[in-house]
Amino acid sequence: MAPSKICSLSVDLDPLTAYYAIHGLGDPPRPLRFTILRKALPRFEELFAEAGVRATFFVIGHDLEAPEHDEAREVLRRLAAAGHEIGNHTYSHPYDLCRLPEQVVEAEIRRCHDLCVERIGRDATPLGFRAPGYTIDAKVHRVLASRGYRYDSSMFPSPPYWLAKLGVMGMMSLRGRSSASVVSDPRALLGPADPYRPDPERPWRRGQSPLVELPVAVQPYTRLPAIGTLLAVAPEPMRRFVLRTMASRPFFNLELHGIDLADAIADRIPTQLAGRQPDLRVPFHEKRRRFLQTIEDLRRSGYELLTLAETAARVQREGAL
Ligand SMILES: [Zn+2]
Q1: Are strands 5-12 and 251-257 parallel, antiparallel or unpaired?
Q2: 250: domain range?
């Protein structure tokens, strides 16, 4: 009998530059621009090898061009050859993707796609997309559909998350700092939380698109986020509670970030950032231990662990999960 539940693990490889921008801190010191791909990515490679799972890595095209990332490209080649999936996370990670003209959106997606193939290899041809900051619209959807992508995984239908984000952005503007974050269309917050075929004009609603939408996991009822950072740092009873409550959904789209295996002390990340990201103050080996435990817990409760592209193919084949 096929397992009834699917979990897909994905890792958004946002550089620390993105977190400096979210917190309105300007540009990080130069060496920190490479921390995620040089330090955290190999830790994910090792973690997933030990756990025996394949995941989806959402790569930013621009990062593939840096000479400082020679070794990271090698790691990504090994990951792709080992059956991990490489996904498209745009060329330059613009948080305001939806506000850009369609030809700029097209270039952001095309350039990242081409760089994945050129700099990592054919194994790394993206079939799926995740937008920076979880916002897509009809324009982005059109570009993905015209490229024949199999899925989008940008929707994050969590009103509590967006409220918290609005609150933080409001506090920052009171203090005269501006965040790079953009708030999504409120209609997207109440969209489906399980995989669906979107309406191309309103991708937060069900429709007939050939693409599948795989929303980032939110908990049933409360729609609180169920993402990797939470599982890595929440007290143990809360971690177990989130896993239990997610079991009532057919699909657990567990999103992690490169920063989830970064470490303020081991990676010399200044207090300027670490003071605002409490998860950075938890040692990476502790977060790693909790991810391993989570993967083991998921297996024990009957989850099948698939990449997002594999999950999308199943939704396309069977209509739903
Ligand atoms: Zn991102």
Answers
A1: parallel
A2: 5-318
